[in-house]
Amino acid sequence: MVPDLDLAFEADPELPPPLRQAAGPWADPLQGAEPWHELLSGWLAELAGELPPALRAPAYSLGLSLVGDGEIASLNGDWRQKPEPTDVLAFAAQDEGLEQAPAMPMPDWNDDGEADPLELGDIVISLETAARQAAEHGHSLQREVLFLASHGLLHLLGWDHPDDASLAAMLARQEELLASTQPG
């Protein structure tokens, strides 16, 4: 079952138009969050069986921002003490205490009697860094942006890569996500 997704999407309007154009529907202000909503909802559905109980929910909320190198360098400096551009940052809202989480979290109920979405956090991608990496890897900017989005989403869902084996497993899972959705 595909979960409901409350997605806050933003593409920095100051990004160079050729870069936005190369990113296709993933940075198109006219399409907005629609392509992302479908893609991320599908990935969440695919990952549902792998999630720890504390992250299993019928609805999720997350933010996704496409920014330039200046913005991501500022965030990277503030949060990781590395004041240089990076490709993707993930700010997980459900990072703390997953190991000791109860078997099933109690949902918050809204006025309609439905559960509020589980807040996952935010993914921030530098479109400028993604463009450089796409050229280095010999594939499209669109593919690189989706690869980085999958990486950020896995981080929001508790994946990490403290060693080479963990990184290899995470990268393999990202490739499976990309292959399963056949993004444009």
Describe the largest sheet: 4 strands, mixed
Spatial extent as radius of gyration: 16 Å
Q: What top-tier CATH class fits best?
A: Alpha Beta
Distance between the termini: 23 Å
How is the CATH topology named? Collagenase (Catalytic Domain)
Poorly predicted runs of 5 or more residues: 97-110
Biggest sheet: strand arrangement: 1-2-4-3
CATH superfamily descriptor = Metalloproteases ("zincins"), catalytic domain
SSE order, one letter for each helix or strand: EHHEHEEHHH
> Structural class of the helices, strands and pairings?
alpha/beta
Q: What is the number of beta strands?
A: 4
The CATH architecture: 3-Layer(aba) Sandwich
Overall 3D shape: globular
* Total of domains: 1
The portion of residues forming beta strands comes to: 15-25%
What does the model show?
- There is one protein chain.
- With 184 residues, this protein is α/β, with parallel strands linked by helices.
- The chain has a single domain (4-181), classed as Collagenase (Catalytic Domain) (3-Layer(aba) Sandwich).
- 42% of the residues lie in helices and 17% in strands.
- The protein is built from 6 helices and 4 strands; from the N terminus they run βααβαββααα.
- It has helices spanning 17-22, 34-47, 69-80, 127-137, 141-156, 164-181, and strands at 4-11, 59-67, 88-92, 118-126.
- Strands 1-2-4-3 form a 4-stranded mixed sheet, with helices on both faces.
- The longest helix is centred in the C-terminal third of the chain and has 18 residues, at 164-181.
- 31% of the residues are buried.
